[in-house]
Design brief:
With 162 residues, the protein is of the alpha/beta class. The protein has one domain. Helices cover 32% and strands 32% of the residues. The strands form 2 sheets. Strands 3-2-1-4-5-8 form a 6-stranded mixed sheet, with helices on both faces. It has a two-stranded antiparallel sheet with strand order 6-7. Strand 4 and strand 5 form a beta hairpin. It is globular and about 45 Å long. The two termini are 28 Å apart.
Length: 162
Amino acid sequence: MTTTLIRCTVVDADGTISFIAPAHLSKALVAACSRGAADHRALLEEAARYDPAFVTRVTNGLAVFDEHNTRAEFDEIRERLSAATIDAPTPFRVVDAVTREASLSPAGAGLVVYNLTARRIVQVQNSYADLKRQDLGRLRENGKPTRALYRYELPTDWALLP
């Protein structure tokens, strides 16, 4: 079984992170926004309620990024991005023009930008399923869907753009 993937880019007051995720996670990130996540750490913490295994991979990937890249030296991430494929994505922070371009490049089913500062979710390209202001999603356990569902409703001060 092939998993449909999508690029998720998260903007907050501290900067921007980007990662490729199973497309179902895009809904979990909207649910996390609905719970008041103000920065990428809180967003990932809330999203872990819905798919903890994948969120752990993202946070571990960001820790590796932080360990191997410094403020002045970004050769490691440039090399990883040039070697990365849709099957072997790597989470990263946007630190320069190369990483900015990668963060805005659709993967698989597309690209969704979660701007936590502006409280705006932009479905730049999304061929998987339109994100909605209120919806249901399926909880995951060890990356596998369970029978349990979660419900969310995005507050009215959030913009959700097609």
